[in-house]
Amino acid sequence: MYCFDAPQQNPNTNHGFVGNALKAKINDIDHINCEAGDEDSFFVCDLGLVKRAHQIWTEMLPMVQPHYAVKCNTDSRIISTLANLGCNFDCASKAEIESVLLQGISANRIVYANPCKTNSFIRFAKTVDVNLTTVDNCNELHKMKQFHPECGILIRLATDDESAQCRLSTKFGCTVESAVDELLPLAQELGLPIVGVAFHVGSGAKDFGSIYKAVQDARMVFDIGHQLGFKMNILDIGGGFEVETFEESSAMVRMSLEKFFPNENEQVKFIAEPGRFMVSNAFTLATHVIAKRDLPRHFVTDDIENGVKAMIYINDGVYGNLNCILFDHQHPIAHVLTHRDNFYYNGNDAHGKGKHGFSIWGPTCDGLDCVSVRSELGFDVDVGDWLYFPNLGAYTSAATTSFNGFKAVADVIYVDSTL
Ligand code: PLP
């Protein structure tokens, strides 16, 4: 990993909604006398960017109703903000369903999109009236028959997601052959309502041709399903979208839907399960530099050659909110936020040339807890300085631990750049 940072702003300027919130919070901390933990890492969330992402979705894919994948970031303000905009929800567990229902959101706005479900969770879904789920194998159909026979079922197809940042079809999804030869006939025998097809092209998908192929496969399953007498009218195109590539991926969705589902009389409802797309850019993580040591000569000659001059230790890491490095294959980029009481926030990834090479480590006692083997920062940072990491809304706070006694989920300060 290789990062740059260069301060580009006069410390006295207005830093925008996120920058001002970061600055106000850090200025509030008495770093010499504060209580233990008062200087813990924290997020600033710009709800305006969540609203903007939803707006982009509705402009580019007005025919596809998004169901935000709660697993991506379970923050209740994200859920309520999206709910108020008309977004629906994808939940994978009892707790996720509860977190949505708790906000007064109706159960018919939820898809229980986990093809392998715990029996008691299926019974729970029935009691709270969650009536749409995904299934990719015959055992699951038997479970649905036993515990929630009226629930609408989407057959989850596997996709070609080899180039995705996080593959999902290694774990979930069936082939078209299995769908038509096994699942549909069994559902017919059991009298279960197959109402459509779902797929997911992998989180952080890169090859949008797989969307085309998946929609084509879905068409085949719809055709056979119709022949068998099923009233199939929902196509769930899953997640895998990112703001940065949405022009391309959404164009592929539009083209594929027009080609394979052009018939308005069929009245197919298109839905999706975007996670990363809605929240990734909205969260910035601020971390405190808690320790620093010169690079010990005995163990890192490669690092010395690469220009790493010191190791810095920050108060968040791969066991905390930077777990996305391990679980989500992300490469968060560090920037200097404060140095010697001056504040530097340029608000984006437009980092110029830095000249101070560091390896960055988390606070736990585990050697795995490495945030970056090499980051090039704009200053020779000291203990007491702060760093920030932009674009950390997706698959971060959702999977933290409190390993070694460090706080699991960082506090969040909310701003709204649209107000
Ligand atoms: N739907 C399902 C079933 C998933 O497993 C995931 C992610 O793992 C998502 C939606 C969200 O995917 P993304 O965040 O890539 O949009």
From TrEMBL:
Pfam families tied to this protein: Orn_Arg_deC_N, Orn_DAP_Arg_deC
Domain Orn/DAP/Arg decarboxylase 2 C-terminal residues, every copy: 44-393
Signal sequence, renumbered to the chain: none
UniProt-annotated catalytic positions: C365 (proton donor)
Gene3D superfamilies assigned to the protein according to its UniProt record, in alphabetical order: Alanine racemase (3.20.20.10), Lyase, Ornithine Decarboxylase, Chain A, domain 1 (2.40.37.10)
GO BP: putrescine biosynthetic process from arginine, via ornithine
GO CC term, one of those recorded: cytoplasm
EC number of this enzyme: 4.1.1.17
Cofactor: pyridoxal 5'-phosphate
List of residues that carry N6-(pyridoxal phosphate)lysine: K71
InterPro entries (UniProt xref): Ala_racemase/Decarboxylase_C (IPR009006), De-COase2_C (IPR022643), De-COase2_N (IPR022644), De-COase2_pyr-phos_BS (IPR022653), Orn/DAP/Arg_de-COase (IPR000183), Orn_de-COase (IPR002433), PLP-binding_barrel (IPR029066)
Record's keyword annotation contains Cytoplasm: yes
Pathway noted in the entry: Amine and polyamine biosynthesis; putrescine biosynthesis via L-ornithine pathway; putrescine from L-ornithine: step 1/1
Stored CDD domains: PLPDE_III_ODC
Limits of the Orn/DAP/Arg decarboxylase 2 N-terminal domain: 48-280
Coiled-coil portions: none
Quaternary structure and partners: Homodimer. Only the dimer is catalytically active, as the active sites are constructed of residues from both monomers.
Known role: Catalyzes the first and rate-limiting step of polyamine biosynthesis that converts ornithine into putrescine, which is the precursor for the polyamines, spermidine and spermine. Polyamines are essential for cell proliferation and are implicated in cellular processes, ranging from DNA replication to apoptosis.
Protein name from the UniProt record: Ornithine decarboxylase
Encoding gene (name): ODC1_1
